[in-house]
Design a protein that fits this description.
- Keywords: Developmental protein, Disulfide bond, Extracellular matrix, Glycoprotein, Lipoprotein, Secreted, Signal, Wnt signaling pathway.
- One of its GO terms (molecular function) is frizzled binding.
- Belongs to the Wnt family.
- With about 350 residues, the protein is an alpha/beta fold.
- The protein folds into two domains: about 290 residues, no CATH class; about 35 residues, 2-Layer Sandwich (Endo-n-acetylneuraminidase fold).
- About 35% of the residues lie in helices and about 20% in strands.
- The chain is built from nine helices and nine strands.
- Helix 4 packs across helix 8 and helix 5 crosses helix 7.
Length: about 350
């Protein structure tokens, strides 16, 4: 346990480099640490005062939020595995400048973070991991014939209320340490875009009932799609994000599209203030890891192609031996036997 606290103190020091999403450093919290005492809130990395206060008043909530931080890291890196920027900065706090410069990458991470924390809390209500909440409410509309409301719906309302209170806290601080006003407006806007994407991911799920496997009646509830589906929606918004400027509009400054400022910013579009680097070469100041030694796809014409991923530097081939199950046979009753086959696969990495 002492070792876990020492690791937390180290993470806490590293997490000071980023403001609005410092809480993502919670993803590195040792799994052996269980948040069951109020003093634990003092050593959790990346929390502002209001977040620490929420921790002290709802200790069981913090395990869910730690899980959300891990989900953000895993989901972000998987969603961008085919692109030059692949969320590596989330895994290394010293590279966090790329998430605080107001780039479209920051826009995506803030949106995904806001969606993930509300998603995780809503699911925790359903699974019974949180005593603070229960299943979501039964819809008011009457279902179609053959359908009935039942089951345990994901409590999206509770997830959104508590999640936004936690994730938006750093941007609502009055202290200047929370970043520029323009950056705060950008992060708050993109966080809400993430939560809207989560609302759109609430779908009807059903379970069949009937004699001999028939589906004469269906019990249905409102459930959330997996976070990876929300992330793919946000990736589409990332690719079409709008560059904005902080400009006086009426009595106050607002974010407006830089090139088409005849219209206001749309509620469902991600926005960014600064252009991104190309992420081809390593640059600590810009938060770029570069693409050297990244795996590429020789036959692809997309963003993971060796030409685009390697930025024209070329690539090196190497062979990899894979062991797979093969020649499987089903035996009555009731097991399957397989042989092991080896095959050589050619891979490519950027120079």
């Amino acid at each position: 346990m002492k070792k876990a606290f020492l690791i937390l103190h180290l993470i806490l020091l590293l997490s000071q480099l980023c403001c609005g999403i410092k809480w993502l450093a919670l993803s590195q919290t040792p799994s052996s640490l269980h948040i069951n005492k109020t003093q634990h809130c003092k050593v959790l990395p990346g929390l502002v005062n209001s977040q620490a206060q929420l921790c002290r008043s709802n200790l069981e909530l913090m395990q869910t939020i730690i899980h959300a931080a891990r989900e953000v890291k895993k989901t972000c890196q998987k969603t961008f595995t085919d692109m030059r920027w692949n969320c590596s900065s989330i895994d290394s706090p010293k590279y966090l400048p790329d998430l605080e410069r107001g780039t479209r990458e920051a826009a995506f991470v803030y949106a995904l973070s806001a969606a993930a924390i509300s998603h995780t809390i809503a699911r925790a209500c359903t699974s019974g991991d949180l005593k603070l909440c229960t299943c979501g409410p039964i819809p008011g509309e009457i279902p179609e014939p053959g359908y009935r409301w039942g089951g345990c719906a994901d409590n999206l309302h509770f997830g959104l209320v508590v999640g936004s209170k936690f994730s938006d806290a750093p941007m609502k601080m009055k202290k200047k340490s929370g970043g520029s006003h323009a950056n705060k407006l950008m992060h708050l806007h993109n966080s809400e875009v993430g939560r809207q994407a989560l609302r759109d991911a609430l779908v009807m799920k059903c379970k069949c009932h009937g004699v001999s496997g028939s589906c004469s009646i269906r019990t249905c509830w409102r459930g959330l799609q997996d976070l990876k589906e929300v992330a793919m929606d946000l990736k589409t918004k990332y690719l079409s994000a709008t560059k904005v400027v902080h400009r006086p509009m009426g009595t106050r400054k607002q974010l407006v599209p830089k090139d088409i400022d005849v219209r206001p910013v749309r509620e469902n579009e991600l926005v960014y203030l600064q252009s991104s680097p190309d992420f081809c070469a390593k640059n600590d100041k810009l938060g770029s890891f570069g693409t050297q030694d990244r795996q590429c796809n020789k036959t692809s014409s997309g963003s993971d192609s060796c030409d685009l991923m390697c930025c024209g530097r070329g690539y090196n081939p190497y062979s990899e031996q894979l062991v797979e199950r093969c020649h499987c046979k089903y035996h009555w009753c009731c097991y399957v036997t397989c042989k092991k086959c080896e095959r050589t696969v050619e891979r490519y990495v950027c120079k």
